[in-house]
Amino acid sequence: MAIRRNIPTVAVDAMGGDDAPGAIIAGINQCLKEEQPFKVLLHGDEQQLEPFLDAYPLVREASTVKHADIAITMDETLSQALRRGRKTSSMWNAISDLNEGNAQMAVSAGNTGALLAMSNLILGTMEGIERPALAVLFPSVRSDVVFLDVGANLRPSSLQLAQFAIMGAAYARMILGIETPRVALLNIGIEEVKGTKAIRDAAQWLQNANLPMEFHGFVEGNDLTNGLCDVIVTGGFTGNVALKTAEGAADFIAYLMRSIIKRSMLARFGYLFMRDAFDMLWRKMEPQEFNGGVMLGLNRLVVKSHGHATSTGFSSALGVALEMSNLGLVDHVKSDLQNVDLQALETQANATNSMDE
Questions:
Q1: pTM of the predicted model, to two decimals?
Q2: Average model confidence (pLDDT) across the chain
Q3: Residue 126's closest CA among 322, 328, 331?
Q4: pLDDT tens by residue, 99-114
Q5: How many Å apart are CA 155 and CA 142, to the nearest integer?
Q6: Theoretical Cys-Cys bridge with 297: which of 132, 148, 204, 349, CB 3.0 to 4.6 Å?
Q7: Which residues contact 52 (CB under 8 A, 6 or more apart)?
Q8: Extended beta strands in the chain, E state
């Protein structure tokens, strides 16, 4: 399919996610109605996709279906996913389309580990970056916060944490418009002696490095939403737990508010006067509205949607991909990395490891 230059094209893994392909197709339909026009390279099982394309003619018109025999499931191990789905799965083929220049971005709600591994193999990482990090925008009382990593790297080294901080700062400069972002490491305490050795070593390097950021030091979990920092860095295990805990808390608060409103006629009467304010609050807390993590550090733009995303959630992830593509996120991060002495960072990390042996 020839790509019209003025219309972006997104490669979509239509089979990834808990509710694929239904939620994926419905999400594309919603995004097509709400966002700029775009084309879709839809990777998945044609027989499964056809009924949903019949239900959403707008998606059919915007899409080119590319058949894939295999869908990577959410419970597959990394080795199983690579062995079974390499060069034959909807996920692999969507990333390959991106690598071949047929699309400007790829989006999947599938297995995070498989998506990371396949993206690494096909696209490669930027020069000086060991591993990509999954970054999301997290709401706070002041403005959104760049929060990474939220699931791609369970136990990153001090070198990788420092690299995440550099990429997160570049992301914040572009998306938040902050020239000198305030960067912090998520820890179990703010004291310098707290945390793992990897976190302490990363903090030491960031404290002494001459970077276009303000290193704040350590923050704790309750600082995620207080607007203290613009970028908060952690490992994928902790980041994913923190993110899903926050999402669960938001759902619980929304449930309590709705229950209280329904409890009495007086409460319902009061809600009529405050409906707009409550609706704004619920939208601010709704996890699906903030769906879409960017894999920073790859040579092309890949966006990870929640595995259990609804149509609204997947539409949000597509919106993130379109916005990041329009802003030139990948080139922006690459440009920032060229101005950082990553070799000095790696040398220091290696020296620190040698002293510990």
A1: 0.84
A2: 83
A3: 331
A4: 999 999 999 999 988 8
A5: 30
A6: 132
A7: 21, 22, 25, 26, 59
A8: 9-13, 39-44, 63-67, 105-108, 133-138, 145-148, 182-186, 214-219, 231-233, 293-296, 302-304
